[in-house]
Structure formats: structure tokens, C-alpha cells
Design a protein that fits this description.
The complex is a heterodimer of chains A (510) and B (452). By secondary structure, chain A is of the alpha/beta class. Chain A has 23 helices and 13 strands. In chain A, helix 19 links the parallel strand 12 and strand 13. With 452 residues, chain B is an alpha/beta fold. The chains are: A alpha/beta (510), B alpha/beta (452). Chains A and B meet through helix 3, helix 4, helix 5, strand 3 and helix 6 of A and strand 1, helix 2, helix 3, helix 4 and helix 5 of B.
């Protein structure tokens, strides 16, 4: 398998579109997207060209999400580090949502609840002309004196990217003086068309500056790359005699340093874990578990077997699989009866959606449509065993209406009309409010681990039943609100029409 | 870099625990006007940050018709940085006019367009010439916070959309410039109460923002008003001065947003005096409202006078000057509480700070308080921890950021400002006659529910 090497020598991470050929707009059948992604042939016959998927990019867009936000949600959530946002104050507003999420995440993991430690350098108009290095140095000093962190992350912003701030030299100078890692993360919102590059930027910095270069192997340690989710991996992997090392959110700097010492790396979603897991294997020989993601019976079985194989715990894995199948099946049967005839729609991040659709189909819920925020034709390992979309199609059948749309609510309207679901699954904000106004309830998966593994099927089934009951609220609301779109738009059959026929805009507009 | 052994608690440029949005956060001022639609010309994450900060994890107010994931955004990328964003903006506006249903579009430009130097005025001008209802404001985040952005947007709509007016003024009609929408978690309920009491006193009110506003058409009526009422320590003064020179309208500035019968009645008498309208109607209204208000206070007195388990005596307020001053007046004069620490956090312009501090020197005839101006959460936390709250646990009126400090001080926390991430706020008001009663319920429910 030809694999593009991850380059940790460069200070700035390569964007997703450069590494993986990521797209943010596409519409069709899941099987067609899978075919066009030509996973196996990546980097071989086509010399990389085949992974460049065509994008249906139109003139109209609504506000999306940026890479810097993902840096806040990862680097900003390391418990004994500080993140400094080198930016005007607007980027700093992200401290508010991520503080609330951090606090509730800590509570969910039984850790002491506290405020997040993110500092904004608060650049003003004169800094745009003369540069803001002095302020960055002051904020590093403030962070070090006030919080005694074990590491300091520095995030860039659109403004500092354009004026060309030299964060590398400030960081290395500061590092020498204060004796802790000071890590610049390149995450300007304009640098990548998709925000998941921000995950990679954080992981790139951690790999370069925090992960121990001379690891002492811990045979029973397994890295789990995740967000704030509840501790569902310990009960599963504990059965195999493995200790869980959760990173990046809610981890300590020491947890991050020992990433190179683990026996293997897994994640709950390849979108998030791709870069870190591949780099740990490449640089430190920590094997990445190359298997389907742990969703539904087929995925979870294969995932556990591969962990068993890689960590030499095959018998334990088989015993656990057998036990769990027996335990879960009767409960699942009951849920299937209750969910019979129900139709669901999944609107989440990319690889995560692939996993959630399998769980819904295990529950007997019909899924005829899904919206993902982006699509990576391949993950960093380049290994077809990680082709989560193909695994979904091969094991659980095609998804007839599969759309890539970077949280574009105006497109979501047409997609919901076409698929007409009873409920939607979401994770990021922005789409559920529209569904609500159309009378459709949403189950927000704030705890991203809810649907993982065998129990995940039960958890998700119950969450769906809860949310179906909410339908009364949304149906009532539907009768009393007006949507912010023109009749012309609401009458369009194809949500991607403006990309396909841009000349429509030349018609009289007012 | 020198590292001092002594920890500094001086405000530097650093802002931890942010307490306001940036200038483009004023997209929520646009969103607060029924019928108006913001179009943001900025990076892909700017609108989302302002939304999740100001409108979601701040009372969970919601994006409504035109906020949240609805607002069109150019989501500027590398291409717009290198080659400029004018073409991208042009196609965005063109498609927005086709797809989005609104009476007025307001283009707000963020850091990227402003640093790169896009001529947004020229692009928007092309559409204005064709008669499209669209205006623009330059709201790069480095220009200041959402208070600054709010007045930039207000001025843009007045100058580019409302336009010239030479007709007659309507006696008793006033424009109200008060709390900053969304930044103030309770602005909707509060503006509703302000409008209610002013109308009760016989005035006609352009409230301009929120559910009680007639929307874009009400903005067209701005020039007809007899005068402008600025009801806040400083926000709105620039707008009022602008309107004075543009339409010859005088303005009345009342720094204290009224909470409780005493303040509200006094407020109404000042406005009625200034307007020169019939006092009989306003006095009847005041009498009726006070009767109702004191009915409840009379019953509340049993609790306040003889509750066994102790009630807080000393308090701190951390927040924007408008609510900060309003709460102080009420807590001191209505409840007889003792001010221990007052911290103003929205970075009011230097020229207004002395006047704001002056208001605290005369909270009551026998009560004055000092104020600190601070924006960084570390500094604010240290100031609170250094405060002598006496022998009883304090009550802290603040934000989610003060939760940890309140816990450390074993006090009660009441989230009254941005960000209030552990409050769900719909129509609740804390001002006027009605809001004061809500506030009393909130304060004492919080205090006693933690007691056993």
C-alpha cells in the first residue's frame, strides 16, 4: 500500500485537502461516492490524482465552522496546559462554548469541574499595522505566571496569518526561557476549506513537541483518540486487560507524552483520529488499529478482534464478543420491535455518520438519507481496512441520498423534504433548528460515545425513543413559524441547483 | 522574557474568560430587528463563534429567524486572502437576495476583508443602485467589541437605509437606545418591559429591537420621533448624537436602567417631563403599577423579615455597566444590601468612565461604592478573592466565569450577564416593575435552595 508520509518536520500541518483530497460539497448515492473515492488505488495508478473528487461548489454559503475552533476544542481542553489565541477578540468568543462543554465533559468523567484556560491576545487595529508579537510574549508570560502550565499552545488566526506573525520564533524563544513546551498551531480559518484540519493542526503540534521521543513501552496501554465522551472504552477494553489513555480532550500533558508508549491506538471516529494514529505508527511504531469503527455488531466484532490480534489478546477478545452478543441480543430485539417502521436521518461529521448509520440499521431503523459535513476519500494510513464508507455499504447496504454539505442549512431543507425522516441524529449545532421548524425532532449526541460498541446500540435505540416523544413539540412549532427562505428556494427540488446551474442567478433578482 | 516571582494582577492585553463578542458580533443586533438579515463577509468560523457564544451558551436565547446557521457568510478562504474577496462577496449577495427572505440585508465585514482591503462599499453600492434594500458596516474584529459593532451597524442602517427626512416630528414618539441585544442575556424581556411602562405612561415607542419591535418599518420611523432616549450608562450616546445632527432630534440620557418601583417611577417622571406630555396619564399608570408591586412586596416582607436561616448581606456585581449600575441601585435602595465589589467588564470608552464611576459614588444618600474596570477573568477572580465579604457567604451577580470563584468563596452565584451558560432565558425580565419581582424570586430562591 502506497502511503503518503506524514511530515512532522514542517511547523505547519498540511491541510486535509492537500493530504487526503477532502471535499465539502457532493450529492448522490453513498455507493457512488465510495466508487469515486477509489480508495484502493490511491497514489498508485493515478499518481494521487484519482483521489481528487469533484465538488459541487455553489455561490451561496451560510456560516460554517473553522479550524481554530477545533484547536480550541482540543488543545484548549488539555487539563494542565494553556491555549493562547493570538487573535483579535472575536476568536476569543469561542472560549464561551468550549468552557461550558469542558465543564460538562469534566463532570461526565468525574473530574473536578473548573473553567477552561484559554487566553486571547486581543489584537487591535494598530497591531494589524505594526504586528502583535509584543502582546503574544506578554500573554505567554501571563499564562506561565498565573497558571503554571505544563505546556502552552499558541493558535494562529486569520488576522495573524494575513499580517504574517512569526509565531515559530516567539515560541522557541519562550520555550528556552520558561522550560516547558510552547507549541504554535497553524489553524487560520481561511487556510483549509474544512475545519477538521484544526484537529490535525493540534495533533501535529502535540506529536512534534509533547510526545516522548524515547518511549518506554507500556504493553497494556491503549490510546483512545476522542473528545469529551463518557468512559465507555474502559469497560470494553478492560475485559481485554488494557488500560485506556484518553486523548486529547480532558487529558493531561503527561497523558499526551505517553502516546508513543502505548500498545495500540484506536478512536471513535476516523475523521478525528486519522492524523494522530497514523503518525504514531509511522514515527513510534505504535500500531493503529486498522479495522471498521466500533459500531454495530459487525464493526465492533471486527474492531475487537483486530485489537486482540495486535495486542496478543485474541482469546480474551473472542470470549468478550461471545458474552456481549448473548447479553445484548434480547434487549436489541425489544428495541427493534419498538422502532419498527421508523425512519431516521444522520447529519454529523463524516466517519462518525458512517458508524451511526450502521447502528440505526442494527436497530431496524430505516436510513434513506445522510448529510456529512465533509468527505475524506481516504484516511492518513491509506489502508482500505479503514474505509468506513465502504464497510457501511458492503455490510449494511447503500444509502440512497448521501450528501456532503458543510453545515449548509439551506440545502438541508431540500434533503429533509426528499427523505422525510421521523427524526435526525446530529452532533454539531446548526441543522437541528431547521429540522425542528419542519416538525422533525433531533437527538443531539453530545456524548459522542453514546453509540459505541454493543451497549451503544441499546443506548442509541433508547435515545431515539426519547426523542421521538419530543415530536409533539416540533409539530406544534411547525404550525407557527415561517422559514427564512424565499418561496423560489423552497420550491427547488435540487439543493445543489445553484452549483449546477449558476446562470439562474442572472435572472431578475428583485 | 522575564518571569517575575510575584504574580501580576494588572490587566494586560491578555483576555481569559471573554466577556463580550467582537465588532462582527453585531450581526446579532441585525438579527434582533424583525425582517433584517445579516450577511457576514468573513472567515468560515466567525458567525458560528458569535452564535455559540452570544446566542447559545448565553441563556440559550436561540438564533431565531436570521441568526444561528441561517446567516449567509462568505466563508473566506485562501483565494479571497490572496486575490481579494470582492467577487466572492458579489456572488454571495446576489445569491442571498435570491434565496433569503428579508426586508433589509446588512453586510458585516470581518478581519479578512478589512485587512485585505476589499472595497465592500463599492460592491454593496452596485446592489443599492439597483434598489436592493442592503447596507454595509465595517466590523473587523480588531476594531473593537460588539458594543462598538452595534453602533457601527445602527449608524449604517440609519445613513444608508433610513436616509434623509424633512417631514414633521410626532409628539410623544420616542426612539429607545438601551441594552445590547443578545450580549445582555435578558434584553428581550427587558426591552418589552421598557416599552410597556413607557407606553403606560403615555408615550409612543420605537423599541427597534426584539419581538416588540415592528421591525424594519419601525426603523423608517426613527426620524419622526420627538426625541431619542438613551437608557444606559453610555451605549447609544454616539447614535443619539448622530441623530441630533442628522434629524435635529434632541436626546435624553438616563444612565440607570430602572429596577423596582422607586427607580421605575422616577424614570418615567423624567421621561414624561422631557416629553412635556400630559402627566395625569403617567401618574395614574405609576399609581396602578406601584399598587401591584407593593402588594407583592408586602407579602415578601414576611420572608425577608423573619426567615430563620440567614440571607446574604454583602454582594459583588461583575458585568456590563448597564446591568451593573442598575442592580447596584436596586440592591442598595430596595433591599438594603451592602456593596462589596463592583467590576465593570465591557471596556467602556475612556471618556465615559469617570461619569460611570460617579454614579456609584451616590448609590444612596448614605451608600457609595468603588468600581473596578477589568476585562480579564484572572484579574476579576483575584479581585473577588481579595474582597472582604464579612462574616457571611456573599452573593455574586456575575457570569458563568464566576461559578468557580463563588464556590471557592462558598457564596451564591446568580448569572446575570454574558456568558450565562447555566441559565435558560426566554421572556424573563429583571427590570422595571415586573422584572424586579422576578429578580427577587431568583435571588432568594438561589440563596435558600443551597441552604439545606
Amino acid at each position: 500500500m502506497a502511503q503518503k508520509k506524514i511530515n512532522l518536520d514542517i511547523p505547519e500541518v498540511e491541510s486535509r485537502e492537500q493530504r487526503l483530497g477532502t471535499i465539502i460539497a457532493w450529492d448522490g448515492k453513498a455507493s457512488e461516492l465510495s466508487r469515486q473515492s477509489s480508495y484502493e488505488r490511491r497514489g498508485c495508478e493515478g499518481k494521487g490524482k484519482q483521489c481528487r473528487l469533484c465538488e459541487v461548489k455553489g455561490p451561496f454559503t451560510q456560516g460554517s465552522v473553522c479550524s481554530e475552533q477545533m484547536v480550541e476544542c482540543q488543545a484548549g481542553n488539555v487539563r494542565d496546559a494553556v491555549l493562547i489565541q493570538h487573535s483579535p477578540i472575536g476568536c476569543g468568543v469561542g472560549q464561551v462554548p468550549y468552557n461550558s462543554i469542558y465543564r460538562n465533559g469534566l463532570a461526565l468523567r468525574n473530574l473536578p469541574v473548573e473553567n477552561i484556560r484559554i487566553i486571547c491576545t486581543n489584537l487591535d487595529e494598530s497591531d494589524m499595522v505594526f504586528g502583535g508579537v509584543k502582546k503574544l510574549k506578554q500573554s505567554i508570560k501571563d499564562a506561565f505566571e498565573r497558571y503554571s502550565p505544563k505546556a502552552i499552545f499558541l493558535s494562529t488566526s486569520c488576522a495573524t496569518g494575513i499580517i504574517g506573525e512569526d509565531m515559530e520564533s516567539v515560541a522557541s524563544e519562550a520555550e528556552k526561557e520558561i522550560g516547558i513546551p510552547v507549541i504554535p498551531l497553524a489553524c487560520e480559518g481561511f487556510r483549509s476549506k474544512h475545519w477538521s484540519t484544526g484537529f490535525d493542526a493540534t495533533q501535529h503540534g502535540i506529536l512534534r513537541k509533547i510526545v516522548r521521543k524515547n518511549p518506554k513501552k507500556q504493553e497494556d496501554l491503549i490510546n483512545v483518540i476522542n473528545l469529551w465522551g463518557s468512559d465507555v472504552f474502559t469497560p470494553m477494553l478492560g475485559e481485554l486487560g488494557l488500560r485506556v489513555n484518553y486523548v486529547v480532550d480532558l487529558a493531561t500533558v503527561e497523558d499526551l507524552a505517553q502516546l508513543s508508549e502505548a500498545a495500540a491506538t484506536v478512536g471513535f471516529c476516523y475523521t478525528l483520529s486519522s492524523y494522530m494514529a497514523a503518525a504514531l505508527e509511522q514515527e513510534f511504531g505504535v500500531p493503529e488499529i486498522k479495522a471498521p469503527q466500533p459500531y454495530g455488531f459487525a464493526g465492533t466484532d471486527a474492531w475487537l478482534r483486530e485489537i486482540g490480534r495486535v495486542t496478543n489478546r485474541e482469546e480474551l477478545a473472542e470470549a468478550f464478543i461471545k458474552k456481549e452478543h448473548e447479553r445484548i441480543k434480547p434487549k436489541l430485539e425489544e428495541l427493534r420491535k419498538k422502532l419498527k417502521g421508523i425512519k431516521g436521518y444522520v447529519a454529523t461529521g463524516s466517519a462518525y455518520a458512517h458508524g451511526l448509520i450502521t447502528v440505526l440499521r442494527e436497530l431496524g431503523v430505516e436510513v434513506n438519507g445522510s448529510l456529512v459535513f465533509h468527505h475524506d476519500p481516504v484516511y492518513d494510513s491509506g489502508d482500505p481496512k479503514q474505509d468506513s464508507l465502504k464497510f457501511l455499504i458492503d455490510n449494511y447496504d447503500d444509502v440512497p441520498s448521501f450528501s456532503v454539505s458543510n453545515r449548509q442549512q439551506y440545502q438541508f431543507y431540500g434533503l429533509l423534504k426528499k427523505t422525510n425522516p421521523d427524526f435526525i441524529l446530529i452532533r454539531h449545532n446548526g441543522l437541528a433548528p431547521l429540522a425542528s421548524r419542519l416538525g422533525i425532532p433531533a437527538a443531539p449526541l453530545g456524548d459522542e460515545h453514546l453509540a459505541i460498541g454493543y451497549d451503544g446500540m441499546i443506548n442509541l435505540g433508547e435515545a431515539v425513543l426519547d426523542v421521538l416523544a419530543h415530536k409533539k413539540f416540533h409539530q406544534d412549532l411547525k404550525e407557527h413559524v415561517k422559514l427564512p427562505y424565499t418561496k423560489w428556494w423552497l420550491d427547488q427540488e435540487d439543493p445543489y441547483i445553484l452549483a449546477k446551474e449558476p446562470e439562474i442567478l442572472n435572472e431578475k433578482i428583485i | 522574557m522575564e518571569i517575575n516571582k510575584e504574580i501580576n494582577i494588572n490587566q494586560t492585553n491578555s483576555i481569559n474568560q471573554v466577556r463580550y463578542g467582537c465588532a462582527i458580533g453585531a450581526l446579532y443586533s441585525v438579527s434582533s430587528i424583525p425582517g433584517a438579515m445579516p450577511i457576514v463577509n468573513c472567515g468560515p468560523g466567525c458567525a458560528d463563534k458569535q452564535y455559540t457564544g452570544l446566542a447559545f451558551y448565553n441563556g440559550f436565547q436561540g438564533g431565531g429567524y436570521s441568526g444561528g446557521a441561517v446567516s449567509p457568510s462568505s466563508n473566506a478562504g485562501e483565494n479571497e486572502v490572496v486575490f481579494g474577496g470582492e467577487n466572492r462577496l458579489r456572488e454571495l449577495i446576489k445569491s442571498s437576495l435570491k434565496i433569503m427572505e428579508a426586508e433589509l440585508f446588512v453586510v458585516l465585514t470581518g478581519c479578512i476583508g478589512e485587512i485585505v482591503g476589499d472595497d465592500v462599499g463599492a460592491v454593496v453600492g452596485e446592489f443599492q443602485k439597483k434598489g436592493a434594500p442592503i447596507v454595509y458596516a465595517e466590523t473587523g474584529g480588531f476594531k473593537g467589541n460588539n458594543f462598538v459593532g452595534h453602533e457601527l451597524v445602527t449608524k449604517a442602517i440609519i445613513d444608508q437605509y433610513v436616509g434623509e427626512y424633512s417631514g414633521e416630528k410626532e409628539e410623544g414618539l420616542i426612539n429607545v437606545w438601551s441594552l445590547l441585544p443578545y450580549q445582555n442575556t435578558f434584553w428581550r424581556g427587558d426591552l418589552t418591559e421598557i416599552k410597556r411602562v413607557l407606553e403606560g405612561a403615555g408615550l409612543k415607542v420605537n423599541i427597534l429591537f426584539g419581538p416588540e419591535s415592528k421591525g424594519v418599518s419601525e426603523w423608517k420611523d426613527i426620524p419622526k420621533a420627538q426625541f431619542n432616549l438613551v437608557l444606559s450608562p453610555w451605549l447609544g450616546l454616539d447614535t443619539a448624537k448622530h441623530l441630533k445632527s442628522k434629524y435635529g432630534q434632541p436626546f435624553l440620557h438616563i444612565p440607570t436602567v430602572p429596577i423596582g418601583a422607586k427607580e421605575t417611577s422616577e424614570f418615567l417622571r423624567k421621561v414624561v417631563d422631557f416629553a412635556g406630555i400630559d402627566k395625569q396619564k403617567s401618574e395614574e399608570f405609576i399609581k396602578e403599577e406601584e399598587k401591584n408591586y407593593y402588594y407583592y412586596l408586602e407579602h415578601f416582607a414576611d420572608f425577608y423579615a423573619e426567615y430563620w436561616w440567614g440571607l446574604p448581606a454583602k454582594y459583588a456585581v461583575v458585568g456590563d455597566s448597564a446591568y451593573n449600575l442598575a442592580l447596584n441601585k436596586f440592591l442598595v435602595n430596595q433591599l438594603g444590601l451592602i456593596p462589596a465589589r463592583q467590576i465593570i467588564t465591557e471596556n467602556p470608552p475612556e471618556q465615559y468612565r469617570r461619569a460611570i464611576a460617579g454614579e456609584y459614588s451616590k448609590l444612596a444618600e448614605d451608600v457609595s461604592a468603588d468600581v473596578d474596570f477589568a476585562e480579564d477573568g484572572y484579574v476579576i477572580g483575584q479581585l473577588l478573592k481579595q474582597t472582604d465579604f464579612g462574616h457571611k457567604p456573599p452573593i455574586i451577580f456575575g457570569t458563568t466565569w464566576e461559578r468557580d470563584t463563588a464556590k471557592e468563596l462558598k457564596g451564591a452565584i446568580i448569572e446575570v450577564g454574558f456568558p450565562a451558560s447555566y441559565e435558560v432565558v426566554l421572556a424573563r425580565t429583571y427590570i422595571g416593575y415586573k422584572g424586579a419581582l422576578n429578580l427577587l424570586e431568583k435571588i432568594y430562591t438561589t440563596a435558600i435552595s443551597a441552604s439545606a
